[in-house]
Fold:
Amino acid sequence: MRGKADRKGQMATLYKVFHYMRRYIPLLAVSVVLAVVTVALTLYFPILTGRAIDLIIDEGLVDFEKIAAIALQASIVVGATAALQWVMNLCNNRMTYSIVRDIRRDAFDKLEHLPLSYIDSHSHGDVVSRIIADVDTFAEGLLMGFTQLFTGLATIAGTLLFMLTIDVRITLVVVVLTPLSLLVASFIAKKTYSMFQLQTKTRGEQTALIEEMIGNQKVVQAFGHEGEALEEFGEINDRLEKCSLRAIFFSSLVNPTTRFINSLVYAAVGIAGAVAVIATGGAFTVGSLSCFLSYANQYTKPFNEISGVVTELQNALACAARIFELIEEPSEKPDDKDAVVLEHADGHVDIDHVYFSYVPTQKLIEDFNLHVKPGQRVAIVGPTGCGKTTLINLLMRFYDANAGTIAVSGQDIMHMTRSSLRSSYGMVLQETWLKKGTIRENICMGTDATDEEMIAAAKAAHAHGFIRRLPKGYDTPIAEDGGNLSQGQKQLLCIARVMLALPPMLILDEATSSIDTRTEIRIQKAFLAMMEGRTSFIVAHRLSTIREADIILVMKEGRIIEQGSHEALLAADGFYAKLYNSQFAS
Structure:
């Protein structure tokens, strides 16, 4: 059953590969034609060699003039064969890496359109391994297939035809014995596919662990987790070693076994040919035997190469299956055909009877209701896991509610384009993100701002001072995720990015968590000026930062249990009052 499923999976993967090959059919056709021509020239060379041998009859009976003419012909044939093979390899390389480019482009495009739930639930390292390592392995197998498969098939057909013209009986000896190598190669290929599948899966696990450890090396060292990390890596590495050894062991059996069978064929042809030379009394010459032996060798050689190609293709197809699995993941639900574009959001937000949970069996937000007027500053507080960040995910449509409606400016967000909805919000998160590039590129992301506007936003975010002290100011390059900046500096740049965009609505999720108290006070003042006339959602754990909010929502277990102004909630002496007093207790 498993073998049948593997074969079905292989055929499905091959069909998908052919789908990508369709646009490169002209290159494929040129490559096939060149393969046939080069094989024909290669097979013509033994004929010239046989003729030259027959011209060396005995001592003193050598026709040097004719041998020289044959040598010239042979030189032309060899030169033409080499030139055409070079052109064929160019075509194969262009075709292979164009297909690989298309697959990588589609995989990355899919990555950009996957729902956030996929990104949250899958290892980032495994996804990277699919797009990088698996595609590279697939490319190597595909290139070998193009280069050797066409030439090998043409060689088999050509040598068979030439041998039949020389001697039918000896040709039958070759044809009868050669399929043995195909049977051996087929048996081994069936064994290797599942092993290569396991190898690529385990390699993805290893990449995921490495990526995780690199991204969190400070935490690993701070908690002395190096030993456990090494043990975990060692366990995965050992598994990778075992499955790789098994896959490579079985695949390495192909070459020696087929070579052994090919040697048997060569020996059988030599014996049968020698008998024919003696029996025919010169009708079957030594030159003909030499030519036939050369053809027999060339006839069996492609079987050996093709069996090697088949083994490599097992690995390539196993990798391709993982790539196509990513490409075929369901994309984020597309916008409705009649979805409206939110052009001028007035900041009116209505949440009516919303239910949501990440896992169906684990309830989170239930019957959530909220009505925000334009320009209101709404603070959201509550214990960890109460649904504060989840509410932000729903407002931005990173996740869609299971039930209920969320409306912006009187329109259901399910019936408006995601891009227009998200561009109406400015977002600063506790988890900062900066792309590799310059300070300027990170602040101006998504806008066409002038230098004056950019500097004004940086000054408002209190980032201009430290930027000016950098070696190249705003043109200073920063490493991936701002690795050469402090956490506070990265957060200031993220704040400057939002202050430059100035959208009609703001979401601040612990936006000043990594900033010193003095700078935080200044930024809070800048935030107050920026929030003037803009609907703002502020998620905060430090309750001192939200006292100026128009309304404070106190959440617990996915529901609003209290709401009101800071003074009103303190006077009510409820859950908020306990939270607030716990932060300022003597």
Remarks:
- The chain has a mean pLDDT of 80.
- The two ends are 71 Å apart (CA to CA).
- Residues 438 and 475 are 5 Å apart (CA to CA).
- Residues 349-584 form a domain with the Rossmann fold fold (CATH 3.40.50.300).
